[in-house]
């Protein structure tokens, strides 16, 4: 490639010399060169450009520390509008290339080059010596010694012959533009733990709770490219590069870029307590297409084709939330499943979104996927537990604030609410305001409302106002017209290594009942407390986390069953619904491409009996009506069929390809589930599940039901 460019520019230089006296060609022109005579226009352009580059270029500290002496070669163009565009940069350090790109981004728009009075593209090659003091050119506009940017390729307009237009569509150097784009960072707990420490250092003005985060939000604090470079393997063949380091297809020009990847989630496991069949498995194939058009507009789409059969307790839970219409199950977090072979499931899933950032204050997204609010492993406000759903999101960031508005279309798929063979549609709107009070303290305010298509009102335009209080709208549309919740979040940075965080959810506004002290059923609230320890015990890459969650009975439910805080028979908050306490501890470690994690969860839960002699709702199932409660006061967490739940998981793996986050892993799950009363749906069960897989890690699997 370099030899080709050398010959191209050598030929261009020869052509230029033969046309030296051709007054039909004019150089690009800086404002400073306006009054320079025609003979000196070229010299003025070269000297003005070189002076600008040398005055603004800041040699990276790493280059200075290593006392590097060398040269940067930059090939650039001035387009028909007078804008500078870097085509190619050759340098010994990636930091030198990035700094050159930064300097060229600072250049003003100038008068473009012309041919026969028509604007044209013109290309240049320019060397810059390091240290900068070695560049000793005279910057006068006379014909003295000139900077060496004389290799020029004038591209004359081609109005009639466009037969080579197709052949000119060629990819330039792929610079991994996703890491500066408005693409979402996939919701993977392991992936987020890699940059969580840098993103939460004392003094940074970041907002970590509203997820998924954009790559452009995080790249200012965490160098994705540098960290990926540390994991790259030596590979010379095309197959080796694609397997270990790169996207399957990657294409980039100055105007757009895209990647195409074939993703996998292949699992094979064994449940040692299960006798119905020999093995568990999951067979997922997916295509991921993502890219950007310009610097402000990005897109992402992934289509999954899945077949699977899981561990017994997971299969039973999937079947317990099955939809109306005869399909056997809903795979938690994924979607509705059809029967497949011997007691297996076939469950297609599709996700995607458009992301547009008109300026530094706003980002707009329209898509089909998931969202998460919080700094913990769980969220009591908005979790990625449920199946994907359509949404429109507006993020507004300025000063010390980040304000997130999300509007969603959800479904209730229970037989009891199905109408004319169609699932019941409901809507949710929420807003979350995150405020950095100090360089250590962050607080957040959350409000959400759920409403259904009663009286054919459809999507209520009242809730489109992004700054209004939804509780007031709920009152104005009728006392039973919606279900409103409010929440609070907080985070405090004790140090760069230790953060504490918390949440509170409030689902009832009757203060006399909430604070009356008689444990009313209307006392519907929950809270979370947690702590994170980065680089624990001064071991780089070791992350520790502890978290406590509790939610009182009947939280998230409603006396009008459709208005519960759920979607596709799953909770939009904590995956256990309500009426529980839990404590969990997580450890993660990553070194180069190797990673490992351990998780322990202990909980106390209260279930309904669902027996002929007792059909009361004890507040754990958010899809039951509050009107079925057995009593009004003395309501306690764990009431009903009290169950002790223990879950532990150990996983270790190797990151096969850091560009796609493809992982080879093995895991072991031990689960103990022990209710006071054995019923058809809840009975004593112990599970030991070993699993091996090859997975593109771009969403969270939750097995801790």
Draw up the topology in text.
Layout: H1 2-18, E1 25-26, H2 41-56, H3 61-65, E2 70-78, E3 84-90, H4 94-106, E4 114-115, E5 118-119, E6 121-130, E7 152-155, H5 189-199, E8 210-211, H6 215-218, H7 224-231, H8 238-244, E9 249-252, E10 256-271, E11 280-293, E12 297-309, H9 312-320, E13 329-331, E14 335-340, E15 344-346, E16 349-356, E17 362-369, E18 372-373, E19 389-398, E20 401-412, E21 424-436, E22 441-452, H10 470-477, E23 483-493, E24 498-506, H11 511-514, E25 525-534, E26 542-551, E27 566-567, E28 570-571, E29 580-591, E30 594-607, E31 641-657, E32 662-675, E33 685-696
Antiparallel strand pairs: 1-4, 2-3, 2-6, 4-5, 6-7, 8-18, 9-10, 10-11, 10-33, 11-12, 12-15, 12-16, 13-14, 14-15, 16-17, 17-19, 19-20, 20-21, 21-22, 22-23, 23-24, 24-25, 25-26, 26-29, 27-28, 29-30, 30-31, 31-32, 32-33
* Helix share, percent: 10-25%
* Helical/strand content category: mainly beta
* Beta-strand proportion: 35-45%
Morphology: elongated
Low-confidence segments, given as residue ranges, are: 1-22, 138-152, 154-158
Overall number of domains: 2
CATH homology superfamily of the largest domain: Capsule assembly protein Wzi
Q: What is the straight-line distance between the termini?
A: 55 Å
Residue-averaged pLDDT, rounded? 87
Output the CATH topology of the largest domain.
Porin
**DSSP, total strands:** 33
Q: Sheet bearing the most strands, described?
A: 18 strands, antiparallel, barrel
Number of helices: 11
At CATH level 2, the architecture of the largest domain is Beta Barrel
